[in-house]
Structures are given as C-alpha cells and as structure tokens.
UniProtKB/TrEMBL annotation:
A Pfam family: Wzy_C
Protein name, per record: O-antigen polymerase
Major subcellular location class: membrane
GO cellular component, one term: membrane
Membrane topology according to the record: Multi-pass membrane protein
InterPro entries named in the record: O-antigen_ligase-rel_domated, WaaL-like
Subcellular location: Membrane
Amino acid sequence: MLKLPSWKLWFTHLLTTDRGVNVSSRGLLFISVFTFCVLGALALPQLGIYGYLADYCLNPADQWWGRPFAQMGIRFSFTLALATMAGIFLQRKKLRFGEKLIEKQEWLMVLFLLVVWGLYFFAPQTVGRYGSTDHPAIKLAKIFIFTLMMTHVITDLNKLKGLFAVLSSAAFLLGIKAWSVPYSAFSRGRLEGIGGADFSEANFFAAFMAAMLPLIGIMFLRSRWPGKLYYAACGAFTANAVVLCRSRGAFLGLVMGAVAAFIFAPKKYRKHIVILCMAGMVGVIYLSDDFFIQRIMSISTDQSEMDESSSSRIRLWKAGLRMVASHPLGIGPGNWYQTIGRYIPEYEGKDSHSTYVKCFAELGVIGLAVFLLFLLQSSLNLRHIYLQVHSLPPPEEEEFTQLYFAILVALVIFMTCALTITMIYTEILWVLLMLPVCLKRSLDNYLQDQEETDGF
C-alpha cells in the first residue's frame, strides 16, 4: 500500500474528522491568518499585536477549529509575541515613541510589577493552586512585556483604529458564539465558558463585552454605510452576550458608562451617542427575561435586602480589610484563596469578588497605592489628550476626540465592573488601561509631524 507523507496524513486527518468540512475550512482559515500575522509582524509589528489580542480574546487552543494545531505543539500567543518582538527589533529605526521612550504610566506599571515580585519572594509561598497555570507574579510579568510592546508599536491613529477594529471583531465573534451555544452552556441561568483564557467566567466575560461596546459605537459612528452595518451587528451580538451573562456588575458598569457618555460626549456626536445609548437600553430591555430582571432588581445597599451572593461579597470584602489590618504589606500575590479560610472558614478557597479588595489584601498598602496612582495617571493622560486636541485642525481633532471618548467610556465601564469582579491579574485589564498611552503617543507623533511640516 502506498504510504502518504506525514504532512499529507495530517492534512487528510484534518479534512476527515467528525466535523467534516467545517474543521478544514475554519481551521485552515485560522492557521492562515495566524501565519500571516506571525510573518507580517516581522515587517509590520502591529500585525503581531493584532494577532496576539485576537488569540487572547478568542482562545483558539480551546476551540474545535484551533485545537488540532495546538495539539501539534504550536503555542499561538507565545509565537505571536516572539514574532512581534523580532519585528520591533528589525523595524526599530522606523518605530516612533512620541516625546518619551517610557511614559509615567509605564514607569508606574513597572513599579507595580516590582511590588508584586517583591512580595512573591518575601511573602508566604502560594500552596496548591498554580500547578498547571502561571503564578500571578509570572503571569503579570508576561502581561507587562506585551503591553509595553503594544504601547511602543500602536503609536499612530491608523494603528489604533486597527486595534479597535480587532477588539470589536473579536467581541462580534464571541457574541455569535454566545448566541449559538446550547442551553447546556448555561449554569444557573447564566452563560459560562465563553471568552478568553482568563475571562471565560460569566462576570468576567460580561465585563469584557460591556467594555467593548463604546469601541464598537465609535467605530459605527465613524464608518461609512457598509462599516455601519458591520459594527451595528457587532454591537447587537455583543450586547446580547452581556444580557446572557446576567451579570449585575456588568449592568452597573454599563449604567456608569452611560452616565460618562452623556457627560463627555463630543458635541458633534452628542445627539447620535444619546440615541445609541437609548437604543441600547431598549435592546437590553427587549432581550432581558424575568431571571435577569430579578437579578438586577436585587441590587441593594441594604444588607438585609441582599441575596446570598451579594451579602457574601460584603463579608469577603470585610475579611479583606481584616487581612490588611493583620498584614499591611500584603499577604502576597496569589495567596487570597489559601488565606480567606482563616477569616471565614466556610468560605475556604472563595474568590474576593473585587479587584480593589484583592489588590489591597494581597499587595498591601503599597500595592494599592501604586495601582491607584496608575489609574490616576491613566486619567491624567486622557485629560492631557483632551486639552491638546482642541488646537488641532478639525479632521484630526474629530478623530482624536472620538478615540479619546471611546477609551474613556470603556475604562469607566470596566473599572466599575472591577468593584465586584476580580481582574487584577487579567490581561485585558492592563491592555485597556494602557490604551491612553497609545493614544498619547499617537498625538505626540502627529504633533511632531506638524512641527516638521511647518518648519519646511
């Protein structure tokens, strides 16, 4: 019998799996895009950034169409990060970093990492939790390497708009998946297991999708009709996914985001943004069922009126403050789960359900102070951009204002969700928080171009 070469055997197997042609078409499309991003990153490093973020959001290694390639030993995110790093080195003379090589916000991020690693070495050892996954200190180091690459590559308007398009499209694909999954994917009436590697839990996923809505909305407003139709579909499926998660934290985030949108909306688009927000509210009401409405109605500041889920959060947060009182410098990154049982025995191994409480408890007074300074600097960068763009010519002023507005509202939504969701070691938190640096460098580079043009 004639034997096929090994690569032909693999290709034949791919075409004849139980999913038939779907595996070959979608899987081959994925590996083609992946290869394009890896090779393209050597000449255009932003392609590596786009590919990495798409991989992070869609998590192809755990999807049926990406699993055959993962089983071959291909590490998608690692390969894309290496290709991006190589591209940055090869194209280092063409990259532009604005006024400073390292911005204040980036220095604060590095300082935060130093706090984490200091506690990693001197705090009690984390026991029995991170055997198959990276310890938070190691994970955070990897996250910061990528975000620093991102802020030094995405440094002009076109690249930043491309990043918005990638995140919007990722939310669209996740929204389609959420819409099409069987009822077995729901747990206690809530959608679970959809999303990236570190935001597949219902509340995390809802927070991510909610934060994508302002980006999608701005892309809708600035696009022509074919683009408007595409981004309208992105927004519809993304909003539907938020509702399917039945997350009260995401609902609060959207409420605060709507308030921020009304306050900070650009004058030219204020009417359009108000209409979009109202249409979104109507859509959410239309998509909501009795269970979702009951969860929203259970939001209360009176502990006697809270359900078990809400009252347990209050107890956990109080326990977190007691941890800080006992360990002002922090219990150590990743040590919440092995510590909470000493304060509430019946909650052994339970999560903190708050980014800020977990940061305070694990990283202590210094860690929380650095994190809050980081948030403040992110806000100051956005304000700096807002004040500078008014002196630009109308087309550029409009573009920078649109992106500033989208980033601002997305951060308001996401950091409100962080009140009741633990995200301090998740990648998307730091990616979103570093977008103001990308926008600031884009503005710095534009202003430098204008000065050079005026000089001639």
